[in-house]
What we know:
By secondary structure, the chain is an alpha+beta fold. One of its GO terms (molecular function) is metal ion binding.
Amino acid sequence: MGAEPQECVPEKPVARHRVNWRQWAPLTLLTLAVLVGAALWFAGLPGAADLVWSAVTLVALLPATWAVLRQLWHRQFGVDVIAVLALAGSLLVREFLAGAVIAVMVATGRALESYAQRRATRDLRALLERAPRQARRRTPDGRIEVVPLDRIAAGDRLVVGPGDVVPVDGTVQDAATLDESVVTGESQLVTRGAGEQVASGVVNAGAGFGLRATKNAAESTYAGIVRLAEEATARKAPMVRLADRYAAWFVPFTLVLAGLAWLVSGQFIRAVAVLVVATPCPLLLATPIAIVSGLSRVARRGVLVRDGGSLELLGRARTLMMDKTGTLTAGRPRAAETVVAPGGDRDEVLRLAASVEQLSPHVLAAALVRQAREQGLPLAEPTEVTEEPGRGVTGRVDGRLVRVGQLAGEPPEWAGRVRERAELAGRSTVWVSDERAPLGAILLEDPVRPDARRTVRRLREAGLNRLVMVTGDRPRTAEQVAQAVGVDDVLAQCSPQEKVARVKEESGRAVTVMVGDGVNDAPALAEAHVGVAMGATGATASADVADAVLTVDRLDRLADAVEIARYARRIAVQSATVGMGLAVIAMVVAAAGGLPPVAGAFLQEGIDVVVILNALRALGGGLRGPDVPPATRELLDRYAGEHGGVREVLTRLRDAADLVATHPDAPECVPALREVHRRLTDEVLPHEAAEERQLYPALAGPLGSDEATSTMSRGHVEIKRLVDRIGGHLAQNPDGRLRPDEIPDLLAALYGLDAVMRLHLAQEEEDYFSLSPAEGRPGDGR
Length: 782
């Protein structure tokens, strides 16, 4: 079709940055009035000045009194009552300037608190403004039509134009360049290849591309986040007022001290002076600033927290409970290994399986297709495809009948060994068969997130002293993951009801955080003090009930959120404590007659400045994670991308080792060894040498010293030694035959190299590559 008419272009949200002058107007007018009064006083008109100041005091007193009465009607009691008494007392003793200064302080507190509320939900409102209303859908006859978003269904073929917001979760049909910053907090553009999953809400930063919807709009990732935003923006006061907690002791203490000062001295003005310096502006000003700073910072890190109360609870948490699948693991299966029948071709088995599975919506099918495409295998279009739920898919590929799924009948001996091997490793098995017999098996795993262990360490450093993994998976698999990430306890084969019971039990001992991503985690998230949903995976049910949502699919952002929450809460409490401590000292001096009301009012303003400046410290600091320069991140991305090729060589290495172990006299044995050695020499060793020259020196700064990479350098030395050892055996056999006496040492070198390299790759991905925010790392399930 030709160019679309203008009305068919989906509307793009326009960012609006407006200053709400109405909320700042009371503070502005009161301040101007106080200055006018000061001008009249200096002009020799004290009566007129007192009249203006008294009017300012009265203007502040009336709404403050009404607010306190409403609080008392709802059985709420806060420190605002002190401000009301101070304003009223100033009028009674005719200290009009003191009353006017208090009025300005109260107005400043309300204005800043209102600003803090708006700022706390600004990131959430930005999400609401960007929500798409319609989408381009391709019709069966090839036309493109613009339809409302609620008419999009799973399976629809969409077109996402340049600058458009991706409307629903889907699979990219063409390579796409995306800006995911609004949803994930990452500023760098991300490239997604054909077949990769894309979450709704991200922005197309490149040319238009095709998208096949995998969910409708209501079930997509962005919809859950938008519902969170709507709820958060509708809530009253998105932050906790620590001042009200101090009211339980501070208000009675203030009233008793003011009463004693009046009773002992007989001067009511002393009681007013005590009330003036007791005005709780340090709490009304500094606490919201610190809390909103924390809310804003975690939002920029890709964590949306509903309100300040949730942030404060997150900062006080001591126990963390985590689901396994999708939280500590990638949540997406990965084809870890392909095992073939004796004499079979691994690539051909994977190609046949992926070709048949191209039309299946099953998550395991997506893993097979993704693996085949990553290896560059040419997929054929299947015919006569039928799918039997729970058993698998059958179809014809190049005229050949192929069955992918469960194994029918009695397995041959080699297949029995594969089944045992998969069971021991905690992997799922997908069998590939033809009309006669099984051709091979593809072992699938849900890999541990590369950043999981580092994140667990950071969470411990942040003050979480009990970390528990709860999962519905088998005990063997759960124990393997728990050992890999280093949690304290494992609860396996838990039903949703059992998860809720365990969360309730832990919550009775300490402030507890629960992290999950699935629908079955939603009840447990609601039960915890703070429920955190891995919202980037599209689990909208868990996001709807959570107190916080990770909009980026990175577990380390949870550690960032905990560290920022603790820091912001510490600053808020510190500001409140210092401010109230100074106020108490001033109250004692005022009670003794050493501080008149006017001087006390200005002293209180000075205390406000001190605590506000201290509260502004919450805008930065608190994060323990290393700061990685952009150039180092580029190196991390480059070498992380090369790990896929290294793992493919490792697969060939294991095949060659198995061939030497089982059929050392086979004519293909030595040629297979020579090919593996060539690839180790031409591909793997140059990769390791380049890391040694470029990557490891660049990591010295972020990691603190050159010693941080010394053990990994020792791994490079061992890898080179084992490769040379294999090459030495091959050099001694120019005739292409292995001597029986050298087979044990050759096998030790082959299997040893396999183990050393797998451990080395895992350590690099955990300790180094997880420092970079880029997604799609080796081992993350993509």
